[in-house]
Amino acid sequence: MILTLPWNQFSEEEFTYAIAKCNNSSAPGPDKLSWRYLKYILKDKLCLENIIKIANMCIKVGYWPTHFKSLTTIIIPKPNKAMYNIPKSSRPIVLLNTLGKLIEKVIDNRLQFHVISNNFIYQSQLGGLKYKFTTDAGIALIHFICIGWIKNLSTSTLTSDIVQFFPLLNHHLLTLILRKAGFDSHIVNFFSSYLINRKTQYF
């Protein structure tokens, strides 16, 4: 997979790699386009080239189209709940437009490659990274415990669950982090546009 191109020059390999890992049985978003059909469409070289042009232009002008910001949220009741009039009794599933989701996957691959190759991610960061698994977290924890034993120390752990992280994300802080990570203004502007004016329809 080619990852050394400029950010506004995505490759065919990046898109074919990203879509190959998508599950055909996943529910489509508001555009009603399933992964199975999108895979079929991308077999046409002209269609693939046009989708790549869309992704390239999004980065070049620093803009995420409104069409991709329209989401569908499906409310699924959790089993064996006495009452369903409180939020915790249900599980919301957010469905994105499939084409936008594909472009997001390609951008995600680029983003992780950039920050990891430039040592911007701390070595103990495991969550949200590709090729990092629960096993890795267990091994890291065991390592810290064993180091403590050597020093005749006892080890305890504190875990926390950050609720509603994405809606509470400080957008200004994120742009500062992106600049510090070495991204140019096009990328910063793109993510600034990506985060705002998103809307969802509930079912």
What is the CA-based Rg, rounded?
20 Å
Fraction of residues in helix = 40-55%
- The backbone outline, from C-alpha atoms, is globular
Distance between the termini: 38 Å
Let me know the largest β-sheet.
3 strands, mixed
Q: How many structural units, i.e. domains? A: 1
Number of strands: 3
Oligomer: single chain
Strand order of the largest sheet: 2-1-3
Order of helices and strands: HHHEEHHHHE
Number of helices: 7
Please, could you describe this protein's structure?
With 203 residues, this protein is mainly alpha-helical. Helices cover 45% and strands 9% of the residues. The protein has seven helices and three strands; from the N terminus they run αααββααααβ. A three-stranded mixed sheet has the order 2-1-3, with no helix packed on it. The longest helix is centred in the middle third of the chain and has 20 residues.
Summarize, please:
The protein is mainly α and 203 residues long.
Summarize the SSE layout with pairings:
Elements: H1 12-20, H2 35-41, H3 45-61, E1 70-77, E2 90-95, H4 98-117, H5 134-150, H6 171-180, H7 185-195, E3 199-202
Parallel strand pairs: 1-3
Antiparallel strand pairs: 1-2
Question: How would you describe this structure in keywords?
Answer:
single chain, 203 residues, mainly alpha, three-stranded mixed β-sheet, 7 helices, 9% strand
